[in-house]
Amino acid sequence: MSIPATIGDFSVLPVSIPPLPSFPRKVVHHLYVRRSTPKIPTETDARSLFVTNVPVDSTEAHLRSLVTSLVGSGRFESATFEDERKDANNPSPVAAAQPASAAILLRVHGRKRKREEEEEERDKETLARIPSAWTRPLRRSGGTAVVLLADEKSVEQVLKAIAKAHKTRKYPTWGLAGGSAGGKAPPVPPLGSAWLRAHNRLSYPDRAALQASVDAFSALFADREREAAEIAKRLRNEPDEDGFVTVTRGARAAPASQSEAEEARRKMLEKERKRKEELANFYRFQLRERRKEEQAELLKRFADDRKKLDAMRSKKGKFVPET
């Protein structure tokens, strides 16, 4: 069956996967490679390759051996898989070792730490992290990776080597350094039953080690909360560059509880209702005063008309017709 050398912008790289005890047949897997062109450009895009349809057992060691088999050693720098990029964008569990208000205060008003303090902070976060239950991750089927090479020239060489592999039909072997059967396997933990046995063992960590991680997490949480409380206390009496003082509740800068928020909302609605009533009463007072003025005007006009009528009646008795 003929394998196309390119599909759209992608170069097709066939790799030979050797037989395994669980599947004793040699198969060919296809990787799709192109230059990395992310939506948000970075300074390393020119020397990066975007690889999709990576095998589920992919590791950085596998991709390193693959690049080495194509263009030799010294060209591969690093590889980042799709799930690792998502984890980098999401906060780590250790990042939760602080209340939400503390995270905001420390990010905005926290002082710049010295290198020794940063190293000590990283050590605390490492102690607070619960050990993983897996010795090796599995990738999502059809997942992607970004391979960072030494320079832009290396990207050209890899793409040319992929085109050459189609002509010679000599495909690199997955999981073997140098891409040949005589190469050595990359230093990665094995899969299969050994991987599952290791997972079962790591799922029940030593009680003392687990307690140490929990204690370190609690201590880190308390330290960050105390530091945030000190910052909040300082901000209550320290005006900013515009002359304003940050208003905080007690030693916290956190939002009010739900009951307090409901009470504040009720007071605001009550205040608005009273304001509308006062406004309506004011309009009602104006209307009442206007009606009184109109009534007084009508009474005055009635009195004037009555006087005129009485004057006409008094003149009627003195009327003398002409002869």
Automatic annotation (TrEMBL):
Annotated region (Disordered) at 252-273
The residue ranges flagged as biased composition, category Basic and acidic residues, are 262-273
**Which InterPro entries would you find in this protein's record?**
RRM_Rrp7, RRP7, RRP7_C
Q: Which residues belong to any copy of the Ribosomal RNA-processing protein 7 C-terminal domain?
A: 202-321
Which stretch is the leader sequence? none
Pfam families for this protein: RRM_Rrp7, RRP7
Ranges for the Rrp7 RRM-like N-terminal domain? 9-195
PANTHER family from the xrefs?
RIBOSOMAL RNA PROCESSING PROTEIN 7-RELATED, RIBOSOMAL RNA-PROCESSING PROTEIN 7 HOMOLOG A-RELATED
- Which family does the record assign? Belongs to the RRP7 family.
Listed name of the protein = Ribosomal RNA-processing protein 7
User: Which organism does this record belong to?
Assistant: Remersonia thermophila
